[in-house]
Queue: 2 jobs
Job 1
Amino acid sequence: MLTRSPAARKVTAALRMLAALVLAGGIYTLISPSAQATAPLSAAAQEGKALYDTSCISCHGNNAQGVEGRGPSLLGVGSAAVEFQVETGRMPAARQEAQIERKQPLFDDAEARQLGAYIQELGGGPEIPFAGQTAPAGDIANGGKLFRVNCSSCHAFSGGGGALSSGKYAPTLELSTDRQLYAAMLTGPQNMPVFGDNQLTPEEKYDIISYVQNLKSDVDPGGWGLGRFGPVTEGLAIFLFGMVALAFAALWIAGKS
Amino acid sequence: MRKRKFNVKEIPAKTAGEIDDRFQVATPLRGILNKVFPDHWTFLLGEIALFSFIILLLTGTFLALFFDPSMQEVNYQGSYLPLRDVHMSRAYETSLNLSFDVRGGLIMRQMHHWAALLFMAAIVIHMARIFFTGAFRKPRELNWIIGMLMFWLGFTEGFAGYSLPDDALSGTGLRIASAIMLSIPVIGSWVTASLFGGEFPGEIILSRLYILHVFLLPLILLTLITVHVGLVIVQKHTQWAGPGRTNHNVVGERWFPRYVIKQGGFFMVVFGLIALMGGLFQINPIWLFGPYEAAVVSAGSQPDWYVMFLDGSTRLMPAWEIRIWGYTIPPLFWPTVVLPGILSTVPMLYPFIEARLTKDKGHHNLLQRPRDMPERTGLGAAGIAFYLVLAFSGGNDIIADKFDISLNAMTWAGRIGLLIVPPIAYYLARRISLGLQQHDREVLAHGVETGIIKLLPNGQYVEVHQPLAPVDDHGHGELPYVGWTVPKKMNRLGALGPALRGFFKPIEEPVKPRSNGAKPAEISEKEKEKV
């Protein structure tokens, strides 16, 4: 067995220590994100940042980090959420209330995508997987099954929307585009739950989109749909139209006093 | 060859004679054909229900030919593409086939459903007419009770029909019905299990509802309708009080021939309206609801309008759960078992309650105007208000959503409204009744306003009033208040030319008013009698 002097042992220990420090430091340098070194933004994201800095920054703050009491941080919400909120006119919001409602959008779709690209490049997050305006065609019948189980309890069988508690509501799907429907399922805006890809696969989301779009374009075979509200408007119709018409008929047939 | 004499004009008389020789129907038939109907439009409200019922039988028979109340699971292969390859019950499949593959099936389904809504609506409006005019008083208490029974039978019949297609909406309704039965203390689970043949939904419930819907309940309804109409014939029709009308006669038109033609025409109008609604307005789009699955409950799930007040009472009920002696009384028990229990029994006893309170045991064939019974009118208004608050609360989520109101606010508005709106309705209806009565009395005492203003020597202006009858020393009319219609315009007295009568257009041409300054004409003897 080789024996060493105490001095030599101290030298080897120091060398091992040094090697370990170099290794740890090296790995740290390799895997740690650098606070200073920002990746350059793409052209679209730069356009988006310009829009952000004029229209969004007052509530969502510098670099989308959020402002306490005004707007949440947008880091990690992804381009899907941004595109949904901006395309439907919900953002920029007029005020804080039970629910921010759909209105005439301030930005066009191209600008919404630029904003989305900016937020995406800042913090990542869910993205709409198809580039065009329309989603890939899905199986309508399967979409119907999934819609009835997952969506109809708030948006109603007709997609016309419904009330939630305390002034909140599930909006009508009447104006929703394929991209907005997908983005809403993926990101769960406002009171809507998130339907992640492990709950509804992208193909199932396409099925639901196909069903909803078919539901909207489908002509009511039974005549005027009375708003597809169900028995409430049917009950109003039988009194306001049916009974009133027959009361007039009775007045015509028989005397008044 | 001798030509045989053949007179066409003799055929009806001869045929009738031959029939009478064999069946001796002339005497009873004469009584029926001569039955007199008083002429007033509100007396036709019950007919709307009767005619709707006939249309329900006709369309229902058509639907029964194609519908199969089976809960056997099938794979849909019909022509409605959004449901292709979806698993569903045979009942739902045949309902879809009725809508999409049977010729004329959809309009039949829609007419059936609209006729059902109209049937119940006409019953309720008819019942309100009976109530407000006191037509339920002795001797007609039994017919009032039968009418109430028919409302609740129609309610059950309608609910059974609503449940049959086995779509998601009807399944949701059936689930709620099973929950209501389960909420009954002690016996609830037994009742539910025996009706559903085990746990909800089981496999037998649709066949049971079907036999109830197409056989038992219509049979009972038909029997009650027969008794109801038979009693009207036996007890005679009520009539408004007026000149020549007493408790012992009926003034009106004979049933045959004019009234039969009127009624036949009215049936066609009702049929036409239902066909129109069935063709133009979509009702119960079962294909949008999808097949029933326990996990599927759509927003905006409501029952048909006549059940909606129970949905409303359920929505308004606070979550008060009572545990007593080891049993639980869920909050659902109060609004859906106790409340309809009260609503179905107390109104049935109302004729007796009122007779006791007013100490009126008399026999009444003359109707009362609502203004002449302010308490009853107020009570009726309160009842309608109570019902309406509940019914609107049954659709409060739709109202909240479409009018941008918080659903919680709607619920609280319903809870508070249920307590304060009926008393307000009672007060207002009673005050309005008294006010109308007061105005009648005023016209009887002081006469009709003529519109002629007189300037007195002292500068005072007064309106000249036309007394309706000879006046006493104080210038007050001597006609007593008897609850008849009091004329309130000069032209109703014939003073300003014939009154414009007729609902849609004047029957008579208006006559130019007489020359200015002419005194109002004296009332003729005939007119005096009329008032």
Note: Residues 517-531 of chain B have pLDDT under 50 and may be disordered.
Job 2
Amino acid sequence: MLRKNTYNEFVKILSKPRSFLGIGALTLLILLIIFAMKADGKSIISFVTASFEQTLSFNGHILNGYLIAFIILQMLIVHVPLLVALVTGDLISGEAAMGTIRMLATKPISRTKIVLSKFIAGAIYTLILILWMGFLAVIVSQWIFGTGDLIVLNSDGLTILQEQDILWRFGAGFMVAYLALLTVSSLSICLSAFAENSIGPIVATMAIIILFTIIGTLDVSIFDTIKPYLFTTHMASWRSFFENPVDMGTIMESVLILVVHNILLVALAIWKFNRKDITS
Amino acid sequence: MSNTIIKVQHLSKRFGTFQAVKDVSFEVNKGDVFGFLGPNGAGKSTTIRCLLSLIKADAGSLELFGKNLSSDRNEILRQTGSIIEKPDFYKYMSARKNLEVFARISGADVDASDIQNMLEFVGLGDRGPHKVGGFSHGMKQRLGIAQTLLHNPELIILDEPTTGLDPQGIIEVRNLILKLKNEQHKTILLSSHQLSEIELIANRMVIINKGVSIVEGEVAELLNSTELMVSYEVENANDLVNYLTNAKPALHFQVISDRIVEIALNKNEVPALTEELIHARIRIHAIEPKRKLEDYFMKIIAS
Amino acid sequence: MKTLLSILLLLPLVGLAQSSAKLNKVISKLNTVKDYSVDVEVKADIPMIKILPSKAKVYFKQKDKFKVVSKGIVILPKQGFSEINTFLSDKSKYMAIEGDTSKIAGVVVQLITVIPSGEDNEIILAKLWVDDSRSLIIKTQITTKSNGTVTTNYTYGDMAKFALPSKMVFEIDVKKFKLPKSVAADINQRSTEKKDDKRTKGNITVNLSNYKVNTGLSDELFKKKS
């Protein structure tokens, strides 16, 4: 039954125009960045390397597909949560608003399975979103710009990664980024279990992400104790794969915190949805 | 299997400070078209939602097909089809896709031809590929009935199925229910606030008011054994009043206007009284039975 | 007037002209190389830049054509790889003053200070430590207007006869390195906890091998964009 309803949930997601809105917007944004890089990539790079270039000369194919992919990821990973929440935020509350929840909850499928199937369908959608993003960012950029070593600007300086040492980092980075987005999906599904309207959970998810991000960036000591436990702190963990050497300890810590978030949020959604009187 | 399909005992449910259902009990037998009657706000919807596990009851027991709802929920729902209030569908999907989605989790094997047959059964045979967003309320109601029947359930629960429909839609839905009763021999629980509707379709019924079940039994028996208010439209109400006061002092009546008098009668007393009035040279323009649910309740409560 | 002043200022140095013969010997040796190509392996140890050893092919042609071809990213000092050769080849542009002798890695070296004569030159001052017996530059210290001072140590192997080193170690100033903050902004900011690299010097070690000298490299080679 879980499999059947997951299929159903996915059919519903694919029938909603807004599901493609996200993918469309993502495609447009990435193509825009690729176009901008094609047109004026050199000056964008020299903005980063300017202070080094008086003393050093950077030789080789710097403006390559990997760099573009990295820039795309860096720029868009902040916005993708909105696209995820847009779809996952009304998975439960949307049914309540539409009234279909009454039909759904009177079928021989437990409420736990309903929530789980929505979570799985949301996870699949998020996966498709990030795979599409990965395809456009890594593959399409490579077609246009070719491959090469990757210059990454980390906060402690430039790291130059060798061409053969990059793809796995993108792979691993995408996986951690996916886990972060999955947390957004779980959060919005969880909020969705508490709400009766479609838009509330979407807005609330974004509000929480913005709030946590601000708390994370504020250099105020009272927030220091909670900062490591905010999921937003770990949303950029994918980037750690582009440091040399890779600090696996920090990444695993982030992964653990994100996984715990997912479990708690889904558990909370299941608990709430099971106790909920459907009166809509 | 026992003959009892639904057995509700002393059900109660409170939302915050509001006691929606206080003490509702009734039994629905196999093959019944069972009327679940009560004015708006009587607790019908809450009771039905409890029956379908949409709402958790505070107290009381709910048994369907001889099984306890809390322990055998899925088993029970597999044999049940329902429409609660108005049927709502995924507007952005076609009628067929909607049915596919619900069929998939109905617990039965339903294939494309079953879905087409069902669409035809409810008169939407050519509407399958159309998005539900563009459907009228009546079409949605019929699609809702198709959805309840897809998995061939033993029990069908319909919550106010004719509410909001135009007269044509009401007749269509009513005929569909009769078709289910006569051709498919389903057990049907039908809630309504209109006695006339129940009288037309149901064989048994329960009446609830303010969250309490008041009376339960055969529709014909319950309705015949109780008095009607029969409205007599005559040329001059005074003549009728004089006659009744002198000749029928036991009868209760009420003057509505200078031409209309309502008299409390049993159904079987109507022919005799009418004959007497004609003999008494009272010119009758119209006789109309008035059986307002509210009046009926008042009587039951009073008795 | 300016020219006159220059001449007057230069007069005392004329007597020392003979002592720059040591430099002239070096220059003539350098000039025997019309062009070369060489495989380089670059190891950079520079604050704020993390890079693994990288390989490239370097092409040079008299008097100032220079090209680096690499598949990956190779960081080289902006000044000092071939510029000093180019600069030294035009004797009219500088004065050379011989200084003390000293020893570097057991080799007796003569310090020659080179002062550019024009004002438009990027190089402000160059100090060369020359092994007179082999006519090889062992060490240079070049101060430029924009890059501070770059010190280079040369090690020679098979190609010493052409004055081409087998290893060069550059020491560069990195005080001016700054990161554009807006681009560096991480969401998670955790990296700020890391200690800032406070070093002001960086090293670039270049190993050179597989020299091909005077093969007649075409000018075309240098025109193509790498």
Note: Residues 65 and 144 of chain A are 7 Å apart (CA to CA).
